């Protein structure tokens, strides 16, 4: 508990959060109190959260795969279910060995790339386009470990590896955030493959993508936190939710190395259509599911 917040004050915060509809009010109050640097900052943070601003935007960070990832206002908040895709990517990389070239499209905050590099126990590149990272959390400049890293995704055989990480997003705010979280990586602003150097063609060992996949007609059904505070381009996947996914899948074979893998997040309902598109692009396709995380990923492998 913070030195400037008494148990009574914390209880009052819990009451306000619960009245605002925060299901995990006690946990959120603890996070707000421990993150705020001054009583005035705490009051402002509580007011924003009560007004419906996502907790991660208020804190300035999100927990993802045992890391604290910087999250700026207006950027898509990384979801716990996406950890499944990262775990599968780490497993594939460990099985293949070597030093993979990793490409993270629709990268948002860069959380997937940061977690993947952490899971491989290596660095993300040669320092080409990132900016300096701090100790992590809301006041630092980049990714930090969350305590002992519980919930992380490291695997046997990964330690000591070095991956070359490239990431891209169309949203300039997301790109700025990703550069904070990926200081050793090449982070590009642009539409999918468009800003990437041609030298990456045929070299990518892991292409990881969490595209927007909510059908346009279902956007209005999303929680207000998402609808009002996250960019529409990170949510709206078009008529059936697969517009962006299809564009990625169509070009993926040109960028994958022989034996390289495309891992794309989707919903359980969309998995069959996504896998069909992956197979149609000439990749060996399979869908994998985590009931624990309510997560679905389609994996396509180049021969």
TrEMBL record:
This protein's record includes keyword Cytoplasm: no
GO molecular function: protein methyltransferase activity
GO biological process, one term: methylation
Organism: Nonomuraea diastatica
Protein name, entry field: HemK family protein methyltransferase
Record InterPro entries: HemK-like, N5-glutamine_MTase, SAM-dependent_MTases_sf
Superkingdom as given in the UniProt entry: Bacteria
Keyword terms of this UniProt record: Methyltransferase, S-adenosyl-L-methionine, Transferase
Record region (Disordered): 127-160
